[in-house]
Every structure is written in C-alpha cells, then in structure tokens.
TrEMBL record:
It comes from Stomoxys calcitrans. Pfam families: LRR_1 (PF00560), LRR_8 (PF13855). Signal peptide: none annotated. Keywords: Leucine-rich repeat, Repeat. The keyword Translocase does not apply. This is Leucine-rich repeat-containing protein 58. Gene3D superfamilies: Ribonuclease Inhibitor. InterPro entries: Leu-rich_rpt (IPR001611), Leu-rich_rpt_typical-subtyp (IPR003591), LRR_dom_sf (IPR032675), LRR_domain-containing (IPR050216). GO terms for cellular component: cytoplasm.
Length: 363
C-alpha cells in the first residue's frame, strides 16, 4: 500500500483515516467485537474511516460490522480464509478498492450481481480476486463498467468471457496463472487497456485483434504455448514491455533446429528453378512439372534460392519501432540463409524514440 510522504499533514490525515487490523491473528468473533467498539468511538469523535486493513488474519466469515463504515474507500481482506463475499460489500457507496486476494473464494462465493438496480452502480474501480478458487470468469463482472483494474491471477479460470469488451474502462487486466487456452477476439476492443497479463496459462495463439490495443504498454505472455505471434503486433506503438520466455517460439529461436537433408528430387528441382532453366511439357513427366510449379522463394532478400518440401523454420527478430524487435516465424531454403542479428541501433533523437520498446524478455 502506498504512503504519501510529500506532505506530512497529508500523511497524518491519511493515518487518522486508516484503521489497521492486519497481521493480528484475529478470528471472526474477536474482530467483530473490536470493530464494534472502534466504530462507536470513531462515530462519537466524528472521524470517518476511509481505509480498513484486516489482511493476514484467520477470518472465515465477512465481518458484518464493516458495513457501518459508510465512508470506506479501501478495504483489504487479503490473506484470510474467507469463503464468501456478501453483496453488502459491493453496495458500500464510496468503496473504490477491494482487495480479497489469497482467500478461499469460489464462483459461488460471489454475489449474483455487483450492481444494485438500474440507477445504482457499484463504485469499485479496483478489484483483486487473485489467488482464490475461481474456475470461470465471473460473468457478473461484465456489468462493472467503471472498473479500471481487475486482478484474477492464480485461480483455475479456463476462459475469458467473450463479453469482456463491455468493460470499456479497464486499464489493467491481470489473469495470469490460470488454465486459459485461448484469448477471445473481443479483448481487442478494450480501448483503454494499458497492461494485459496472460502469463502462465495454456495459450497457443493470440487473436490478431490484439493489434487494436493502441494504448497497451505491457504485454506479459511468458510460460504459455505460443508458437508464433500475430504479425500485426508490430502496430502497437506504445508497447514498452513484452515478455515471451518459456514459450515454444522462444525455445525454437534459442536452440539449433535440426534439418533433414533435402531429397535428390528437391535438389534437382532447386537447381532447375535457381538457374532459370525452362522445362516444357514433354521434357519431364507431368508430376515433375507440377512439382516444379510449387516452388517457394526464400525470404532472405540476399538469397535467390527456392525450396519445395524441405525448408528451414526460423524465428527472426523483426524491427519494432527502430530499436527492439519482435520474433516472427519465417521460412528459409537453407540454414545458411539465417541472417545474423544486427546490433541495436543507437537511440534516435527523433520523435519516434518515444515509442521504442524498452523490454523484450526472452529468458
């Protein structure tokens, strides 16, 4: 939790508005008694509590007395043994931040709705449900249109809701450490998103709609099953951090790749095509003529060779905003056509330098 030190009076005011019960080894009954007496005392002195910390205790039930703190803005219930979050906590009129990570919450532990009627909406801007027992994305979250920061890492979630595009205020979506296998196209419609954390899942590919996230600054994809990235990802001009380690695409880039020698037919066909020899109907069987017509050009601009069935699959760093590069899959006719990686160019003094990627984490 941040403490502002720039102004001592501001710090004092913050401390006066904070009630800290963290790390006191409290059980439900003990905390209820303390909260009740503390509430009466604070109400008599007309001092409103805005921050309540009850993290790192042994609570199994939500303390009902918390509802009497009507001006509460931050509530930290993390590192307890809670099995339920009642609807009452989401109806607190000024609550902006709710931290309930590392408890024993399931999808059934959450209220069926976080909003309260057509004219009433939950005031939460930040919700942290990481480290619980959720098995699927809580659909009632979709109605929290004002939510900016959503943390649900370390659960057992298998899919992201396709309706997530409705959460247009989201700036941070952290859902790493789950069992997600695919990312819906609708994620690309989160126009305010600045950080997307998808690490430590089972994702094999990303939708091309990721390229629409123009405000994205951090994309964490490590520990997945990605074999390649969508080519349009280079359009993310504001991306400053991209984490890719422990993915097949990186393993294939780092390790030497085995190449089976080409067949005699392929070698002969390569010579014919590379030397521009004309082969007409009657010069060779029809099957060979069809084979010759299936030639693929090597993508190395310095090579004029071709390949047929035998090719080298290589992950190449493609220039990204003038400095760092993104690995993309390319096909070459020979391992000799793998171009050595160039040294990163010095910082440019142009305006484009503002958009250069600062981190590409591969290992």
């Amino acid at each position: 939790m941040e403490v502002y030190t720039s102004d001592s009076s501001d710090t004092d005011s913050r401390e006066q508005k904070t009630l800290d019960y963290s790390r006191m080894n409290l059980y439900d009954i003990t905390l209820e008694d303390d909260l009740y007496s503390e509430t009466k005392q604070r109400l008599k002195s007309q001092k409103d509590i805005e921050i309540l910390l009850v993290n790192n205790n042994r609570l199994k039930c939500f303390p009902t007395t918390i509802k009497t703190f009507v001006n509460l803005r931050t509530l930290d219930l993390s590192y307890n043994c809670l099995t339920e979050l009642p609807a009452a906590v989401f109806s607190m009129p000024f609550l902006v931040t709710l931290v309930a990570k590392n408890n024993q919450l399931t999808n059934q532990s959450l209220p069926k709705a976080f909003t309260h009627g057509k004219n009433q909406q939950c005031s939460l801007k930040e919700l942290n449900l990481s480290g619980n027992l959720l098995t699927h994305f809580p659909e009632q979250l979709i109605e929290m249109r004002q939510l900016k920061y959503l943390y649900m890492g370390g659960n057992k979630i298998t899919a992201i809701s396709k309706d997530i595009w409705k959460m247009q205020s989201l700036q941070v979506l952290s859902i790493g450490g789950n069992l997600i296998t695919e990312v819906p196209e609708s994620v690309g419609l989160l126009t305010q998103l600045q950080a997307l954390v998808l690490c430590d899942n089972l994702i094999e590919s990303l939708p091309s709609s990721i390229a629409r996230l123009k405000t994205l600054k951090s994309l964490l994809l490590h520990k997945n099953r990605l074999k390649h990235l969508p080519r349009d990802i280079v359009a993310l001009k504001n991306l400053a951090e991209l984490s890719l380690r422990d993915n097949p695409l990186v393993v294939r880039f780092v390790q030497d790749m085995a190449l089976n020698p080409p067949s005699l037919m392929e070698l002969s066909a390569r010579i014919v095509k590379s030397n521009g020899l004309e082969v007409q109907t009657g010069d060779a069987p029809q099957t060979l003529l069809e084979y010759l017509s299936c030639a693929n050009c090597c993508v190395n601009p310095n090579c004029k060779g071709v390949f047929f069935d035998n090719r080298v699959e290589h992950i190449k760093f493609v220039d990204f905003c003038g400095k760092y590069r993104v690995p993309l899959l390319q096909y070459l006719c020979s391992s000799k056509c793998i171009e050595p990686e160039e040294e990163p160019r010095p910082h440019s003094s142009s305006n484009a330098s503002r958009y250069m990627m600062r981190k590409v984490l591969l290992g």
